[in-house]
Amino acid sequence: MEDADLAVVTDVRSALSIPLAVKLSPYYSALANFARRVVGAGAGGLVLFNRFYQPDVDIESRDVVARLELSHQWELRLPLRWIAILRPQLGPKVALAATSGIHSGADVSKALLVGADVAMMTSALLRNGTDHIGVVERELTAWMSVNGYESVSQLRGSLSHAAAGDPSAFERANYLKTLRSWSAPHGLAPTSPSGGMPQ
């Protein structure tokens, strides 16, 4: 499957005289390796990630139906993780775009911090109209000013995997730490038979 996809990238690259960016799925078995291979096949940029629209089931009619749902901010976490990992591996000559879950200036800040060259928005504009671009720009500018960033280039990649104080935060080992960070609402925490928290 990967070889077939790479062949398409190679063919498209050979037919173009303009830069080529490839929007990737997050479902490749070795994503970082495949991303490097896509760049090797001629892509000058990667867009992370393609958002698949999954079918739903209507239980009344028992039909398979298409339902379009706009993105939510939590969906940005997956592209953030992979851009942070890929930025130092692919170097500054490969453009990285974050897509899915970009709704605010804070979201753009996050994307730039981990190394994105561009943050792409669609759902936020469909919800709020094109004037929302100005809102996001003002939020980003204000955040940069408060945090001492004079330019986007200074901000970009300053929290990538290579630059982070704790690179493991982007890795699989952080999974247990994340689970332990969950806090149940007051009075709802599960207990073991002995009265303590379950192991």
Largest sheet: 4 strands, parallel
Instruction: Report the strand count.
Output: 6
Q: Architecture in CATH?
A: Alpha-Beta Barrel
List the domain count as a whole number: 1
Order of helices and strands: HEHEEEHEHEHHHH
Which outline best applies? globular
**Under the CATH scheme, which class?**
Alpha Beta
Radius of gyration: 20 Å
Q: Which class of secondary structure composition applies to the elements?
A: alpha/beta
Number of helices, where a helix is a run of at least 4 consecutive DSSP H or I residues: 8
Quote the distance from N terminus to C terminus: 41 Å
Strand order of the largest sheet: 1-2-5-6
Task: Find the CATH superfamily.
Answer: Aldolase class I
Mean pLDDT: 88
Task: Outline the low-pLDDT stretches.
Answer: none
Task: Give the amount of beta strand, in percent.
Answer: 5-15%
Output the CATH topology: TIM Barrel
Percent helix range: 40-55%
Structure description:
- The chain has 199 residues and is an alpha/beta fold.
- The chain has a single domain (2-180), classed as Aldolase class I (TIM Barrel, Alpha-Beta Barrel), CATH 3.20.20.70.
- Helix content is 40%, strand content 12%.
- It has eight helices and six strands, in the order H-E-H-E-E-E-H-E-H-E-H-H-H-H.
- A hairpin with a 4-residue loop joins strand 3 (55-58) and strand 4.
- Helix 2 (31-40) packs across helix 3 and helix 3 runs parallel beside helix 4 (105-114).
- The model has no long low-confidence stretch (mean pLDDT 88).
What keywords describe this structure?
199 residues; alpha/beta; TIM Barrel; four-stranded parallel β-sheet; two-stranded antiparallel sheet; 8 helices; 6 strands; globular
